[in-house]
Write a structure and sequence with these properties.
This protein is mostly helical. It has helices at residues 2-23, 57-71, 74-87, 120-133, 140-154, 174-180, 188-196, 202-209, 223-227, 241-250, 274-280, 287-294, 298-309, 311-326; strands at 216-218, 260-262. It has two domains: 37-179, Peroxidase, domain 1 (Orthogonal Bundle); 182-323, Peroxidase, domain 2 (Orthogonal Bundle). Helix content is 47%, strand content 2%. Residues 1-41 have low confidence and may be disordered. Bound molecules: protoporphyrin IX containing FE. The site of protoporphyrin IX containing FE has 26 residues, from α3, α8 and β1.
Amino acid sequence: MAFFKVLSSFFMLTAFHSSTFSLAHPGVDFGWDGSFHPGGGFSGLFPGFYQCSCPQANDIVLSVLEKAIAKEPRMAASLLRLHFHDCFVQGCDASILLDDSASIVSEKGSGPNKNSIRGFEVIDEIKAKLEEACPQTVSCADILALAARGSTVLSGGPFWELPLGRRDSKTASLTGSNNNIPAPNSTLQNLITLFKRQGLDEVDLVALSGGHTIGMARCVTFKQRLYNQNGDNQPDETLEKAYYNGLKSVCPKSGGDNNISPLDFASPAKFDNTYFKLILWGRGLLTSDEVLLTGNVDKTEELVRRFAEDEALFLNQFATSMVKMGNISPLTALNGEIRTNCHRIN
Ligand code: HEM
């Protein structure tokens, strides 16, 4: 941990200097992290954003995460997913954390989120500690990004230099949440289209799907594969037989919708490249996992094979793609606000 802290301070400092330089020359991109958002242009985020205003921000996030993940290892996965579901809906702006109110229809009730998305109490605990240490300074959107990185690192995955400075939205989008977050039975074309909409390409799609190296999914998200994949009452033929038989016992034809199964059954709490090896063996849990290999797109098929062969390649690309995802349409400067309570607008 000491090494991690030294490493992160080193990155914070070097990045702070390079970003100060970049910001002093608007319009000139020195491209230290390729942080562009889909609308084009420079995202305006930089790793040293809290260097002066809240230098202990990352340590506070990590201290809460360490406890939460020690208590329940799955929490790391849940927090990683929370950042993904935030970023795909009007950008990484913590819109996912807003509760229903007079002006807000919460995204928590959307198809992809309802009875599914979790980790809100951990974000609340982090926010409470940060408000105590540095009032009205660290945004809920940055907390989600820091929690996603910390969760990855604490699960044995890669570290990345994380651009910060996102502000929080004053709106949420239930429609955006329903339409932009891919469904587990998506075709590969559909996945590619939804990722492209966010400025993410096939490499990002395959690498970020590797987030499924940790965590669980409910029976209802993979039941169709077991009993009626193509409307002919037959299972998905790409499912390996022994794995298929095991899944049927967790996920019966009727009922059991909330029973859970690991996305990477070989090492569900370890951030490694086993997810890709399992896909090669027909043991990917969701249709959206297996189609990366079988969906007739050479590029994604090739990437699954390469990530399965070369763990370092996957971990590096995951880190790069997480920075890209974290840069989706952030609110900066005078846009948005720093919420004092992540559940509601100020
Ligand atoms: C490519 C399109 C994707 C689809 C269709 C998809 C779908 C799903 C589904 C259906 C679940 C299970 C939810 C439930 O049972 O309640 C899940 C879990 C998860 N997803 Fe994805 N996902 C995708 C991409 C991603 C990305 C990009 C990340 C992060 C980088 C991610 C991280 C996770 C994690 C960590 C879990 C486990 C959460 C937990 O255990 O609480 N997913 N995903």
